[in-house]
Structure formats: C-alpha cells, structure tokens
Amino acid sequence: LQRTAAERIARASDEEGLRAIEREYLDKGGVIAGLLASIPTLEPTERREFGQSANGLKQAVQAALADGRAALAAGRLAAELAADDFDPTLPGARLERGSLHPLTQVRREVEDLFSSMGYQVLDGPEVELDYYNFQALNIPVDHPSREEQDTFYCDREHTLVMRTQTSPVQIRAMERMTPPFRVIAPGRVFRNEQQDATHEHTFHQVEGLVVGHGVQVGHLTWTLKNFLTQLFDREVPVRLRPGFFPFVEPGFEFDMGCAFCGGKGCRVCKGSGWIEFCGCGMVHPRVLEAGFAGRDDVDVSALTGFAFGFGLDRLVMTRYGVDDIRQFMGGDLRFLEQF
Ligand code: PHE
Asked: Which residue range or ranges hold the Aminoacyl-transfer RNA synthetases class-II family profile domain (predicted)?
C-alpha cells in the first residue's frame, strides 16, 4: 500500500492530483480510516501490530505529500527562472519618495523658532463663530471685511464663517489661559475674493499673541525682528508704519527688507526693497475685556499685550522667489518636487 501511494504521489503533476490522493488515503472514509476501523474484527494478538503499521502508513503518506508539494514548488520556480523574459540583473523599479510641502517645512521652522522663545503653539477651528472671527475682535457689524464678497458664510443667519484670519484664536487663547502667556497659532484662512497671482481663497497665517504686565511696542518689534533674522539667518532690516485693525491700538504695518534681493529692489518686492510682512499692534482693551470676560482670576485693567498676524504663503514666496500663490494649493508635482 505504502509503495503504491508513494509512486502515485511522485507521479502527480499538480496540486489537484495531490489533493485527490490525499482525500483518498487520509479523509474520514478513506483507506487508512478503513484500516483502523477494521481493527476490532482482528484477533486480539494481531491488533497492536496492525494498528502500528496503519499509523506508520498514515505518516508515510503525509510525508510523501509534503515532499510532493515541495517538489512542485521547486519545479514552478525553476520554470519561471528558465522562461526567457525573466532577467534577474535588471534594476528594480525606483521608489518615489514624497517630500514635505514647502508651507509645512517653513511652518515647522516658524514653530520651532517661536517655541525656542517660550511660545506655545495653538490650534483653532477653521469653521468659526462670527463671535470669535469678528465680534470679540471689535470688528463692527458694518465693517467691509464682513461683506459677502470677502467672507464665506456657512449659514443664512451668518453665525458661522470660514475664518478669514487666525485672530479668533487670540480670543480662544485668552478664554482658557492665564496671563502672562505667549502663543502662536498657525493655520488656514479663507477669503471670498477674486483669485490672481497674489490672492488665493485659501491661504495660511500665523497669529501671535503675548499678554502680560508691562508688554510694550518695543517687545513686539524686537520679537518680530529677532524672528526674521533667525529665519533668514542674517540681519533683516524692519520698519513700522501706522496701520489700522479694529482689534489693536495702536496698530501697525510691519515691513521687512526684501530677503530676495537684500533691499536693492527686485520683482519680489516690486522694486521698493521692502515687503509688507504683517499687521500687528497692541491688543485693544476691548479685545482683552472680551477674551477675559467673567474671569475673577484675571485683572484685565493691569494687562497689556501685543498681537501680530503674518501670511505664511507670502513668507515662503519671498524666501524661494515663488511668484504665484496659486502654486501652493495647486497640487502640481513639478512645483512641489522642487522643495
Ligand atoms: N488679522 C489681521 C489680518 O488678517 C492681521 C493682524 C493680526 C493684525 C494681529 C493685527 C494684529 O490682516
């Protein structure tokens, strides 16, 4: 029996054949089960030996099947190697590696620099309540930035907006933190405007807020100058011009010397040598009152603070000489692969 089984297994040419033999010998109603079932009909003296050889047969068939399967696999591999379209010396497919978006790279640098100056990095919702985006920031109901052509509203009642700036995070920070504190809040902002090389409906800002005792304009200018000098790794000239934002008083436009041409004048700074870097100023007392409303642990009248908000897209454009802001959200790999 054992020899026949072994011969048949050796002759089987595929897995199907092996499985048929396996069923025939090893299944419930199979040859070996039949042998074992006949044991009770034998003379008691013969039973032991018969049982042992039946079990030996079973093990031998199992081993032969395993050998048969291994032989089939080896045969398949040999056939594949022998087929002439297989060339093991060809180089493998090159693995494309992704890279970080330039906005992500610079945002991380910005976060690291401010963290090293003791700032905490905060996040805030992109779909924001009108209260945080406008009201609490002292922006009146008839302010032009609330117009439908500037703001994406999420509901008819105009209570929910796509945030138009990161400044609402100022209020959220005041609500949950206790002065003195320093925070930045990078994130996406949205404006419903005509798109061109310098305007996108979705762009990125970094908000900064410092609240404490005796915080002054000098702290603001030093902080921003120091930040830019570290980011560009060289002395960056800066200048303040008066600017108006309802949530700061006094308010400023903060310019930096063009990092692309070094102030000589180029296409990036449109020949002026200066680039508008951000809006900033001393936090308006009404904003402090709104942010710390109902807090008996905070004496608002003793506090001052400064705030700033700059465009991350613009910063990356100045740094690398990118001339179209639409590249950032455009998803063109030929652009992204350069970073
Ligand atoms: N939120 C202002 C803007 O989007 C920038 C700003 C932030 C100005 C903080 C002053 C203080 O233009």
From this structure: 104-317
